[in-house]
Records
---
Amino acid sequence: MAEPSPLAVPPLPLPVLSLGVTGHRANNALFVAHEPRIAAVMEEIFTAIAAAAGSAQVRLHSLLADGTDQLAAHGALARGWDLVAPLPFGRALNQAINAHPASPADARLLLAGQPARAADTATRADAIAALEARARLFELGDADTAIAALYLAMVDAPTDVAAAQRYASAASRRVALAGRVMIEQSDLIIAVWDGVSRDAVGGTGHTLASALVAGAAVVLIDCGNPEGWRLVTDLEALDQVAEQAPDPHARASALAATIAAALHPADEGTEAAMALAPSAWRATSNPLFHGYRRVETLFGGGGRPWRSLRMVHERPDAIASGSGAAMLQALTNLPGADPAWPRAVGQAVLQRFAWADGISTRFSDLYRGGMVANFLASGAAVLAGLAYLPTAGPEWKHVFAALEFLLLGTIVLTTWLATRYHWHDHWFETRRAAEYLRHAPFLMALGVVRPAGRWPKGGHGERAAWPEYHARHAVREVGLPPVRVGQSWLRAVLDGLLIPHLASQRDYHRIKARRLDTVHHRLDRVSTISFQLAVVAVALWLLFWLGGILGVFPEQLAEKTAKLFTFLGVMFPTIGGAVAGIRYFGDFDRFAAISRISAEKLDAVHRRATLLRAAPDHALDYGALSDLAHAADDVVVSEIESWQAVFAGKHFTVPV
């Protein structure tokens, strides 16, 4: 028999500092007037960012428009930073629009992928092409046919105001979508703005405001006073009068602190290394800690309550051919997908999911199974201490006392182990990390990610931040797919990734809600029956006693059964209390409610997705599908936050 290969432990993600840039173009008079000063300030800011980032990888996201975007892109490439371009259009249409051709003929040449005749137009197109050749492109080309028609209608009739408005409205929406991708991918946005307007959709002011609403920090460079740049984190700060001479040291410190928080929050490396250490991994579950899952099996219905609950945890290096095979195949089948990108998703995301999921499942068993065992041992200890009364007599009390002592010692030992080895924390944190990674691939195929400022905060304490950081940087490691997003790509994501994922998660939560509801009600029934039996036992003995006085029963009956009924009068409430404790600790009813609500929300998103699938092609655009992906992500994060709110404070304790 072949020896199993050594366990490959996924490394912690390397930190990636992601920047975004937005700003005025070369047709803005104030930008043109102060461009050398703006370039010098941007170089100063890039130097400060590089110093604060240290050895971390830095990535700049730019839409590559002329002016600010290209200025920042050249600065990033000069420093060896990665350049990623979420383009609002396909490459040819993007060049045609941003080269500003003076004639309809040149516009058509550029759309056809041919050089423009006018020298200045060709120069602008070549500048974009040169940057595109050095960047990873994420092209939102699904609406190119419609946008190109509107664009040509405008350039063919330059005096037609209505044609210009139709084009501007459609194009601005695409620019805003690309801007949203850039914002979601970035920790810090660099914005060059004249402070005039935030109303133009897709414009600098609008993008800047959207970034602040999304929770991103913004380095705001005033076109008229670039040396007075400031760090802004709140939308309302845009309306405040800027300092004429800001303190350069305070400003630099604030920028460095922002970058440090993005790269190394709350000792992430130490805490993640503890929770995800190889010593935390086990190939199979431990039967001694199956208590919680056994309760679900016994009281949740579904048949075979005493079946084996042994679990084999999926190895990270096996997920590509195991539970993740369908996901990876769907990613590989996306039309035009770079074959290296699905492999990167498998290594950076799915393997880390399998690792975190296996560790989380183990600590879930330890924590929840250990607490169930403690409740049962607590009840058994009480009964063991009294069992000598009806069975053996006082001369055997030392045997029963020893058994009681062993049970109490087991409770103390289990509680000490849980505290010493952080069962609650490790389960709580690794489960969050695993759930984020479980849902990431279908989002990544659309370039959708939760903005850095909108990730949930940890439940408690200094350990709280690492799961979100871990998941975010695992996704960052892969980055945007290098692809031209078209109708076929969107349909493949919708049919092969989003709809199946929504359906499977909805069905999972429906089944889970029904099972947990059943567990809750059956445990409640056991507690009630135990209390009722206790009442019956006490009442029956009192009946014997009273009957003896009245001569209905032999006088010795009450005396002879006193020890038995004393034991029964303690046993039934003890059993009921232990079951009630398990029911309270497990919070089956609240978890059922959380799953039921999640299923309803997922069903609503699934219904929208199926309607979108049945819609004509023109209705299926990137904006509509990415909105659905965001809605699905919101359901996932809401479920995690609700689950977190229930269990965050339920630490492992002695069951008293």
Note: The longest helix spans residues 487-550.
---
Amino acid sequence: MYDEHGSLRGFIQVTRDLTERQKIEAKFEGLLEAAPDAMVGVDPTGAIRFVNRQTEALFGYDRDSLLGQSIEMLLPESFRQVHAGHRAAYLANPETRAMGAGLELGGRRIDGTTFPVTISLSSIETEDGLLVIAAVRDITERQFVEQVLRDSEERFRRVFDESIIGKFLVNSDGAILRVNATLSALLGSEPQEFIGQPLDVLFDDDSDQARILELIETGEGELRAEMAMSDNHGQPLCGLVALTWMRELDGERVLLAQVEDITARRAAEQRLNEYALHDELTGLPNRRLLLERCEHAFDRAKSGRSDNTSVAALFIDLDGFKAVNDRAGHDAGDQVLIDVANDLTSMLRPTDTVARIGGDEFVVLLEQDDGLEHLRTVAGRITTTIRRQVTADTDSLALSASVGIARVDLVQEPEVSPDQLLRRADAAMYRAKERGRDQYDVFDTDLLERTEARQVLVQAIRDGLRHDRVALVFQPIVDVDSNIVVGAEALMRLTNAQGRLMPTLPSIVAAEVAGLAEAVGDRVLHLALEAASTWPAHMSLAVNVSARELTGRDLRIRVEQALQRHDFDPTRLVLEITESSILRAGPSALAELERLRQQGVRVAIDDFGTAYATLRNLTILPVDVLKVDASFTAGLPHQRAHTAIVHGVASMAFELDIPCIVEGVETEAQLEAIRGMAVHAQGWYWGMPQGPGCIPMLNPVPLPTARPDATRT
């Protein structure tokens, strides 16, 4: 019984043990079934004894088709030997069975496609023996991400190392970790020389170093600024520096420092700034810099920081420079300007500013105004210093200076601007020229009134151009012997905003002084061509050209463009130029006139006789028409001298085969005095200038032989 009882007890114990094991195995299988990875249980021979649902989903097999099959059916052929060796080693070493290290292999689905997996091994004792559990995880996505990261890292390294911009990598303590070749070349040191150095010491300015240290200490933010650096030879560099925090693949935060060498750019910008503020030929300040310094002087005088509340300017214009430039050549003219600039600079104080603001115009700004007498002394020294003779071939040309003085007390006249001060000095200079040149003049109350009146005119001109207040009237030109209108002269009329007519001649002068001559001339030319395009083909159109337009560089181009725009016959256009202007015109201006004449445009000398042109000049100058000045016509027929001059000019023109127009005919007696001389005439005898549609005899019908005498208004 004992044995039986003992055996029974043993059987009962075994049964209990088996039941307990079955419970454990069932529980273990439940855990494997719920695992997120594919779980494959194999026996020591590699036969599959267990798979969970994740295995079916991953490989595409159903559970029944896998049980009993070799584990290698789930592996690509290229990985089977590696897996077998790994499983054998695992089984041979009981100490490793707690958990086999993950092994990267490949998986093979039922459709033959392969994919990367990791396999981790563990084991459990079952009633059937050792069961090796392989946890299989699809790592396709992980490998893709890792490859992307590796590619990104490689790209970063390549961009870093091969960039044309200098780069540092700096750790969170501010020590340099890595340097690219561009930065090494820029600073003239080998890359390893930078490793471990603190970043901030590479920058010269204390404030830049402080900003970099603050960025490193806070561990966040970014910085972009121009910073001063030096290479290993001590040569200064200007770097555009950008500092940005970033995180590397290993998770460490690093500071990326990028340095673009902008030394050459800044030097070029400095040169451009110099060009923008200085005259290229002489190196003197230009008008822009002059006005900036003038503003500074005005602010200082108004601030009370100085006992001197006045600022003065001397406006200098070279007399005779145009003749030097035209006859001696532009190179000689440039050298004269350079010499004058040097002379002015050497004779004045360091606190004074000498500027070149135009072709042959200079300005001296005196921030320390020592009174009018001192200014007179300075102006006298300037005229003495500039006075000289310039050799042109065998000729000796006189060069001198007209100087205008203006000063303003900013306490008494706080409303005066720097530009007004210069205009006052300019006005005084012009009066010095009118008084004979090679001298100075001082701006005074009379000039103030004239200057203010001119400013009103200039503003009226600007407004007139902007708002189409420029209009034309026409004075007919008549063949005296036939009483036929053969043409008309265009005369400008300008009205202000209130509709009042502005004086014409002062307006033209103001336009020239203000640099508006070409704009006004273009408007007049276009209006005249537009009006005359409806006239009979035999009628000519005369348009005045100012002295400033004549010496401009693009008169010919402007005339050609206007003729083309209005499809106007060039042979009908006459450009009227005063005798004094054409005598002062240089060779280049005369050459441009000659090119226009070759196209059919005619040139008339206006006011002939007032500048004493000689017969020799008439054979040289580009002249097609002579116009006798009205001052000579006024003496007809009673003053013998005037009569002789008019008859002489008419005869000279006839002999030279040049048409002659007598200006200023107002009375029947004057008309009779020039009959039979084969001349044309114009004047108030035929009425006041009128609009283009009211020109008498647009169709060639004889004019009345007489009308009541007209008087000037």
Note: The CA atoms of residues 474 and 490 lie 5 Å apart.
